[in-house]
Amino acid sequence: MSILDTLSNLGQQTAFMNLTWGNYVMIIVALVFLYLAIKKNYEPLLLVPIAFGMLLVNIYPDIMMRPSDSSNGVGGMLYYFYQLDEWSLLPSLIFMGVGALTDFGPLIANPISFLMGAAAQLGIYVAYFLAILFGFNGKAAAAISIIGGADGPTSIFLATKLGQTDLLGPIAVAAYSYMSLVPIIQPPIMKFFTSEEDRKIKMGQLRPVSKLEKVLFPIIITIVVCMLLPTTAPLVGMLMLGNLFRESGVVYQLAETASNAMMYIVVIFLGTSVGATTSAAAFLNVSTLKIVVLGLMAFAFGTFGGVMLGQVLKKVTHGRINPLIGSAGVSAVPMAARVAQKVGSEADPTNFLLMHAMGPNVAGVIGTAVAAGTFMAIYGI
Q: Which of 28, 78, 115, 156 is 20 to 30 Å from 212 at the Cα level?
């Protein structure tokens, strides 16, 4: 073999000779996500692995190859990560970690937060009907609509349970992207539907919550929710198990592992595998554009629903509730609560809403899981 033939063969093996224009577009999108994560600090724990998975699959598509499609019967590395998504293992483990990190005290101290968490799920149901109008079938519409909960793991869980794996990449990326963009998307909506006086409302200090209440809460929620909607057990059950690790005070090692080492390992697997589903062929199409638009509408309606119920509760309580905290019900924990605090402090620097906003925020996590369970029940899963 001549030197020219050798060089020609090497050249043919480079990515430059095999990529499509779509691959280059997706590589640029991956670089933008990396910029937002590293430079702008938008949810870097999520966006860095997602963006890098996106980068890898568009440079080397075989990294997601199925064993049945390969000549030697061995799949690509990220294919095995992705299988854990399809089996719903990673979303459930993420929920365990979230539970171990979450203090449900603000929700227990102010149970009315459940209502705001529920109201913020408005975006899910609006998006469901809009998706059907956009031409998606019922199961696909349900999977897409969960983006409105700003909850990536639940979006992945429901898409796989409803058999919508062909839409998993766009749905997951849209959900995680909107979670990351909470500080940009929510404030204009919050300010439009509240007045300066609304945003200045100061809320009274939350009552102390006893250890007994905190221990009983995850047990009671598990029994009530999972008895009504057994299909929510993988999410709600793991969320509450993680929280019981935290609040029981007798399994410190388990709480520490669930909220740190295990959760970060799962985030690596989940993020890179989600990013690796966004090959140009799977991502650059009309359906993806529809999903991105519907996801944004779902998120906007969710924020609107939470704020508007906050307005109602403000009137009912004669001004003791700041309607801004309703926006935190979209469940992007704790980012949405921080945004409510930020918008409130812009109106009055002495206004501290963070702990009040955490109530609807964690209620929204439960609400999104319940919405997913409802859709699974509707479609007989």
A: 115
